[in-house]
Each structure stands twice: as C-alpha cells, then as structure tokens.
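WARN no homologs supplied; continuing
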Amino acid sequence: MSSFAKLIVPAAILGAALMVNSTASFAKPEYGRRTRKECSFCHPANSWQLNDAGKYYRDHKYSLQGYKEPAKK
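OK structure emitted
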C-alpha cells in the first residue's frame, strides 16, 4: 500500500466517524442575550435537553413572559 493511501484511509474513517456522531445544534447565543439568563436556566447541567423553563420558552414563542419558577424545596 502506498504511503498516500496509508494517510487517506485513516483520515477518511475518522472524518466519517465525526460526521456520524455530530448532532445539529439549535441553541443560539441570542436566546441568552435576549432573556439575560444563563444556559443552565433552560438546560440541565451538561445536557442539551430542556428543563421546564426551556420547554416553556420553546412552547411560548421563545418568550419567558409569564413563566414562574417552581418553589425551591
């Protein structure tokens, strides 16, 4: 096998693996600027999932108007 092929094959496999494992990101920095909230307000720690505040924001035309935080235990 030529040295060129020895470089291309692993690079192609790595590139394909990165494409398969990547996910689309729909979070936008403008959401944080608009609401003046940290990411953790709508997302649990180390997660792209939404908590109750995030679901409210999504379901109410990207607005937190009228949202009431649950009482802390």
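Residues 26-65 form one domain.
OK
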